[in-house]
Amino acid sequence: MNKKYLNIIGRILMIASIAFIAVKLYKYDVDFKELMTAKISIFMVIAILVHGLNIFIASFNYGGLLKSIVDKDVRQKNITYIYCKTNIYKYMPGNIMHFVGRNQIAIVEGISHGDVILATGVEMVSLILAGGIITAICSFQDLFEYVEKININITFLCIIILCGLVMGFLIAYIFRKKIIKYLLKYKKLISKEYIKAVLKITLLNGIRLIVNAIVFLMLLGAFNILINGDKLITVVGIFVMSWVAGFLTPGAPGGLGVREFVMSMFLGNIVAMETLLTVIMLYRIVCIFGDLMGYFYAFIASRTLFRIQKLK
């Protein structure tokens, strides 16, 4: 596709995404005059800056992963700018446009779309894996007790999981020829070096998720809610679980509604529901403006930091 038309499409998507964001913010119908004290305002600004930085740094993690897949040098400048820009597309209906938009990297850098899709797939798997590990470590006991409380048959749940695994193996067997062909094309992906790279990005994504949890805890602190001890670990685990749930849910732009539902369901016995719902709403606003801030960081870096590196 001609880069001129690609840029036009990118700008249209950007405008559409911002429009969707504006509509979502309007629907919150928040009276900020009553809610935003000086203390909460400062915490909100800090949270937005940190969230944006988290997105900006994630683009470098993704860039390192992509560079380990392709056979040519790709410019981090373009990866960071496109990654952070298309990250805003996730607020459009479908919750997939930010992944689709990343294919601009393939066109700009002259690499295979398959390479970009593979890097995105590995990043998604590493995020889910990191989130699952954090949730299991921090909140397994609480989740197990909750499952028992709502009378879900553990045996039935295990059967469903087992059926899912069997179905996955059957699909893999049916498409084994295509899978083998794909693995041969990317045979270096099963090397020790690449496995180390995947473990590294999983660790980095785990840190990224914990930073998001810290931002949420900061907002709770703005309302003088300090969580300590075992409950602190539990909140981190449940927060990460809600993040992964929103990430996995198709059709929910930016996980909208899903994360809020999971957090309110599991944290209601730790934090007063009225305050919890307020903090959850503010955290969503932080995420929206934080994603925009991540793009702002990338925009500034593309015109300053990366140019300085090029001169060197």
Q: Main attributes?
A:
312 residues; 14 helices; mainly alpha; 0% strand; single chain
Structural class: mainly alpha
Rg result: 21 Å
Model regions low in confidence, pLDDT < 50 over at least 5 residues: 308-312
Order of helices and strands: HHHHHHHHHHHHHH
Tally of helical runs: 14
Biggest sheet, in brief?
none
- The gross shape turns out to be globular
Through-space gap between termini: 32 Å
Helix content: over 70%
User: What is the residue-mean pLDDT, rounded to a whole number?
Assistant: 77
- Beta-strand percent range: under 5%
**Oligomeric state of the chains?**
single chain
* Total strand segments: 0
Domain count: 1
Structure description:
With 312 residues, the protein is an all-alpha fold. The protein has one domain. The protein is built from 14 helices and no strands. Helix 10 crosses helix 13. The protein starts with a helix and ends with a helix. The C terminus is likely disordered.
